[in-house]
Structures are given as C-alpha cells and as structure tokens.
C-alpha cells in the first residue's frame, strides 16, 4: 500500500488528462497536444487515454478526445449520496418565498466556488450557474458568504494574484483591500450579498450551511433575485428564508419535522 503523500504516477496523469479536457470546454484535444501541455511522453499518454476511453471516462471525437458520459454517471452517483444536495432540493420545493426563485448550493474551492446543486425556479431569470460550474468567489454572494469563514490574512494570501479577482461587471470588486473590507461587512451583516457584481441588475444573497460533522466542508446556500423587485424588505425576508433552509439542510431530520418553510 502506498504511504500517505505518495501518488501513483499513472493515476496522477490520468487525473491531469481529465482536468485538461475539462478546461478545454468540449473542444477535442489530441494526444500529442495533451502530452506537450502535461510534459509527458506521447506513448505514455496514449496508453492512459486508451484506458480512460475503455472505461468511458473520455471519448474519441475526430482526431482528439473529450470527456465521456461515464463522468456524468459518477457525478450523479456522488450527488445522490450527498445528503445536503438532496436536502437542498427538498427545502427549495417546500419554501414558499423561494421555491419560484433561482437557488444554488455551492462549496469553496480555493478562490472559486463550485456549484453542487441548482434550483431553476419558475421566474424568467436564467443567468445563473449550473451544476459543476465554477464562479469567482470574490464577486459571488455564495463565495463571499464562504470567504467570511476565513480570516483576513488567509483572504489576502488566496487572492494576492489579481487574476483571482476578475471584473465581470463595472460593479465587481477587484481591489484586494476592498475585497477584504467587503468580507468584513459580510461577517458583520451575517450574509453574503452581490449587487450586480456577476450579472447587471441581479441581486445575489447567500448564507452558509453549518457542517454536520467536525472537519466537514462548509456549504453556501444562495438565491438570485431581480434587483428591480428586490428592496431591503424583500432582502430581509429572503435572507430569513435562506437561513431557515440552511438550518433544515444542515440537519435533514428537520425536513420531516416541520413540513417546509413559511412565507
């Protein structure tokens, strides 16, 4: 058995191939080009690709490879066993104030947020993240809510590179000092808020979901509302609804106990 910290080279290279194809965004990648980018021998990478292809993790497309459908099955299996994800969907459907709105469940991954679940609602707004999407944590409400769990020094360390603080709109906070101050405000206020930093005219709100177990990664629960119909009173009600949903997601037993949120 490999000791802690040891990695099997072939497995490590296979993971790097999958990550490279993910970054390619569906554009097929040839073996020679992948070998060049990963700095490995073409013959070695060719054998890895054959193995991944045989297991359905990647598939041939023209003269290259792209991600395979087997990854969808594996991702679905993960989501089906992740209690917070299942609890999220149930809570969305049973919360009158938000069940018609866009809601998301996300985790922090470095300087980005990874979306694990998305509830589309019934409203016309469709500018939102889908399952598996990654957005900058610096400008998203869910990202800000999760960053509030870190101290200022850690935030400065993670976001030292300006590339981690992109401007998606003219309201996006890109200055490091301004980001630190914004997260301090999130800590005082108790919830994350995005006022048009990701999409113009959209107000994002988010709260954290308390981990069920010690050492478990924290989640953030967010919603996206049209700014034109979201005043401070509606924000307060939406945050209260998110907090109630977060409490139920943190302890799925509550889903059966109270029969859903209240408007």
Give short descriptive properties of this protein.
2 domains; Beta-Lactamase; 263 residues; 10 helices; globular; 6-stranded antiparallel β-sheet
Task: Give a written overview of the molecule.
It is a single chain. This protein is 43% helix and 18% strand. A hairpin with a 6-residue loop joins strand 6 and strand 7. It has a 6-stranded antiparallel sheet with strand order 5-4-3-8-7-6. The chain has 263 residues and is an alpha+beta fold. The chain has 2 domains: 61 residues, Arc Repressor Mutant, subunit A; 177 residues, GAF domain (Beta-Lactamase).
In short:
This protein is α+β, with helices and mostly antiparallel strands and 263 residues long. The protein has 2 domains: 9-69, Arc Repressor Mutant, subunit A; 82-258, 2-Layer Sandwich (Beta-Lactamase), CATH 3.30.450. It has 10 helices and 8 strands.
């Amino acid at each position: 058995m490999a000791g802690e910290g040891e990695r099997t080279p072939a497995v490590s290279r296979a993971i790097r191939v999958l990550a490279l194809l993910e970054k390619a965004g569906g554009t097929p990648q040839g073996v020679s080009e992948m070998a060049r980018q990963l700095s490995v021998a073409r013959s070695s990478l060719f054998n890895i690709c054959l193995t991944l292809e045989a297991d359905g993790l990647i598939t041939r497309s023209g003269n290259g490879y792209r991600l395979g459908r087997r990854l969808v099955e594996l991702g679905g299996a993960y989501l089906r066993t992740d209690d917070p994800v299942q609890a999220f969907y149930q809570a969305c459907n049973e919360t009158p104030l938000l069940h018609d709105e866009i809601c998301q469940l996300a985790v922090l991954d470095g300087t980005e947020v990874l979306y694990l679940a998305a509830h589309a609602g019934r409203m016309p707004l469709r500018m939102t993240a889908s399952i598996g999407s990654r957005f900058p944590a610096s400008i998203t409400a869910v990202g800000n809510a999760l960053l509030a769990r870190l101290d200022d020094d850690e935030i400065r360390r993670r976001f030292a590179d300006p590339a981690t603080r992109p401007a998606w709109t003219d309201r996006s906070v890109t200055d490091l000092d301004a980001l630190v101050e914004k997260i301090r405000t999130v800590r005082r206020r108790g919830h994350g808020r995005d006022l048009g930093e990701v999409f113009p005219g959209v107000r994002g709100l988010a709260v954290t979901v308390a981990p069920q177990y010690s050492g478990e990664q924290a989640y953030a629960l967010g919603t996206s509302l049209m700014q034109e119909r979201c005043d401070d009173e509606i924000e307060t009600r939406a945050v209260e609804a998110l907090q109630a949903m977060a409490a139920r997601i943190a302890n799925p037993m509550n889903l059966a106990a109270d029969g859903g949120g209240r408007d």
